[in-house]
Amino acid sequence: MRAKVGDEIVVKGHHVGEEDRDGVITEVHGENGSPPYAVRWRDGHETVFVPSSDAVVEHRPARRPAG
Questions:
Q1: CB 38 within 8 A of CB 47
Q2: Residues paired with residue 49 on neighbouring β-strands, in sequence order
Q3: Where are the domains positioned within the chain?
Q4: DSSP 5-63
Q5: Given 20, 32, 56, 58, which is the most exposed site by the fewest CB atoms within 10 A?
Q6: Reading across the β-sheet that carries 21-28, which strands appear in turn?
Q7: What's the CA dihedral at 26, 30, 33, 39 to 10 degrees?
Q8: Model pTM?
Q9: pLDDT digits (tens, 9 = 90+) for 1-27
């Protein structure tokens, strides 16, 4: 798994009716975009996270500077 700061990460719910958990990657601690990642979750909590097979990284295009 590879990611960069600003990408979103989604962790699928494990049980029927359990919602997915998603957040934004704020830091990449591994080499070349590999985990672990610092993540700011939608609920506002921030954690260091090592994804497993139930997680998907959604890559976001780089933002261009204004001007």
A1: yes
A2: 37
A3: 8-58
A4: TT-EEEE--SSTTPPPEEEEEEEE-SGGGPSPEEEEETTS-EEEE---TTEEEE--PPP
A5: 32
A6: 46-49, 37-41, 21-28, 8-11, 55-58
A7: -20
A8: 0.82
A9: 899 999 999 998 888 888 889 999 999
